[in-house]
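Progress report, Aim 2. The chain analyzed during this reporting quarter is listed below.
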Amino acid sequence: MVCAGVSPAELTEARRPRDRASQVSRATLGLRELLLRGALRPGRRISEIPLSAKLGVSRTPLRLAFERLEHEGLVYALPRTGFAPKEFSLTDIWNAIEARGILEGAAARLAAERLSNPAKLEPLHKIRHAMVAILASRPDDFTEYLDLNEALHVGILDLAENDVLRRALEQIYKLPFATPSSRVLLSRTLPMSGEILPVAEEHHRAILDAIEHCEGARAESLGREHARLTRRHLEAALSDRSFIATLPGARLVKMRAADRR
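Predicted structure tokens for the chain:
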């Protein structure tokens, strides 16, 4: 059905920006997934024609997707033409986790300083209690725990009420092993998870308590320390190369022999 007073040609033209945006989003998501799965080798030029066919998008949206992922730091432009997956050193990963800790600590501090109504914390308390319940009675319910962990971190960021800080964190989260979910992914089968998971849950409790009592400095310190758990998990995982290779983003990380010791 054509809208009254609008010709088919006009309707088609009006839909083009939306369709183009949809293709760019699909290309970006698909390309990011291929990169993190290790389907594209770091440093090697990515051939656009077969990739556009694989992702089901034209080459123009694909090139825009490359530009987005170049901004995120997952690919880089080659000297003449085209793009290649970026390779990360272990130092890059440590720096990303450190930056994440600084920003998440700042988010927790702002949340504590800007909390005007303690009732806003109730949804986060419920999320934390649900996470504790899963660990106690359903420790294998990995997917739900992962979703709740992400929701808790996003909820604290919401309370910070700072969109610039949100965008900066979202940028860091796109790098390999830099998201809060990375710690959970690493903890799934590591032997030392029994030691680290209770620490992580105590951090969650303490951060919410600090926010509730408007203790900004304490909330910030806890937020930074909590991010460092991801590094502890990754350091433990490095001792098992077969395990680390199964995780999203691992094939983008170049590890020297000294890094694996």
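The domain at 8-85 is CATH 1.10.10.10 (Arc Repressor Mutant, subunit A). The chain has two domains: 8-85, 88-260. These observations will guide the mutagenesis work planned for the next reporting period.
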